[in-house]
Amino acid sequence: MNTTLAGRFDVYLTGPTDSLDDTAATALAVSGGSGSTATKLAGSYRMRIANSGSKTDIRLDIPNITLANKGIYAIILTDTDGGVLVNAVFLPKQGQPTYFDNTASANVRVLNMSTGYSPIDLFTTDSNTTTSTETQQFTGSSMDTNTITPYSPITADTYTLLFRKHLATGNLTAQSQTFSETSYTTLVTYGTTNHFAVLPILENADAANDGYTKLQVYNTSSGDALDVYLSGPNDAITDISPTVAAIQPGTQAADTIVVANTYRLRVTLAGSKTDIRLDYRERARAAHRHQDHHIACRQLTGHASTGNRRDVAGAQRSGRRHPRQCGGDSPEGHCRHPRQHHRAHPWRERPVERPQPCR
User: Fold this and answer.
1) How far is CA 173 from CA 144, 152, 223, 319, in A?
2) What is the DSSP-derived secondary structure letter of residue 69?
3) What is the mean pLDDT of the chain?
4) How many CB atoms lie within 10 A of CB 104?
5) What are phi and psi of 201, to 5 degrees?
């Protein structure tokens, strides 16, 4: 029975780790002031109450309820103070009720990708307060550009999020956000000066089936819709179609299921296969060459490089005397054969010099 004013809800009774993507609701679209009847096998279930028609907008998540053999139970949905989430009463026939209050904490963090505002502050106001009392959630250096905060617990409810430039009193944006109990949410802030915006990433999505990955793509760039390609390392882009197509700025694409694997990632202007905005394989390969180049420089200038060790081994195999065997680590005058040896062996180890910049 739905006694709330918060709308219509779907009720799911499932196993503890079952994905809602593959599960039918036990009761559908139960509106305020009405009820629904269903029959379930006796057993223990996880109960989730979702906004009607959605499998991700969870308003209550109860880890375990038990339905006894031949039992009769009423599940009564009630309003929370905030008016968006719900509480529940589990009432067995002629038995004592169990109350499930939506008071558990949600978990929130912020990833600041804004190039126009750094650092920023986040304040919240509780939706059920009659005054504009603000609570500071994050502030200062933890909110610099390209910085992510730790998760912070917050009581599950609906809030107004107030983002501000650090130490400013005016808001960059003020928007409503609901945090369900035990949920994890990352608030991605982005945009240039005068174009600040926020995208929430809900991280409680059900995992893909074994052998697959669920891909979520968010476009926080400015101005252009984008296509995303995942392919083999040498696949021509003209021979493949986008994995995710036409992601508009400031939006999230629908979840995409792909085979778990290693891919080359390319991002293009939507509808174009020549206007490439990112090619991850090319960048990774360039970084690898750069790293090898610096390792080579360290080997050439370092005193105990692999090249020096190979020189010692080669001298021992040929019967020649290496500089280390005749005092090569000492100044030249201390060698037993200073002139003849160092002139006769051009491969001798030279004195250590300061490393030179790579060219």
Assistant:
1) 17, 20, 19, 78
2) T
3) 79
4) 15
5) -105, 115
**3-class state of residue 290 by DSSP:** helix
213 closest CA partner among 223, 201, 205: 205
DSSP annotation string for 148-165:
EPPPEEEESEEEEEEEEE
Share of the chain above pLDDT 70, in %: 76
Calculated CA dihedral for residues 13, 18, 23, 24, nearest 10 degrees: 0
Please tell me the pTM assigned to this model: 0.60
Cβ atoms < 10 Å from Cβ of 117: 23
The per-residue pLDDT for 243 is: 96
The values of phi and psi at residue 92, to 5°, are -75, 150
Region 195-209 average pLDDT: 87
Q: Which of 92, 17, 81 is nearest to 48 (CA)?
A: 17
Question: Strand 173-179 vs strand 135-138: parallel, antiparallel, or unpaired?
Answer: unpaired
Side chain identity at 281, as an amino acid letter?
A: R
Q: β-pairing, 120-126 with 135-138?
A: antiparallel
pLDDT in tens, 222-233: 789 999 999 999
Tell me if residue 309 falls in helix, strand or coil. Answer: helix
* Percentage of residues of the chain with pLDDT beyond 90: 50
Token representation of residue 298: 């360290």
Nearest to 257 by CA among 22, 13, 10: 22
Structural tokens at position 29: 């679209």
Phi and psi dihedrals of 307, rounded to 5? -60, -40
Would you say 225 and 250 are in contact if contact means Cβ atoms under 8 Å apart?
Answer: no
Interaxial angle between packed helices 280-301 and 306-318, expressed in degrees from 0 to 180 and rounded to the nearest 10: 50
Overall average pLDDT of the 263-284 stretch:
87
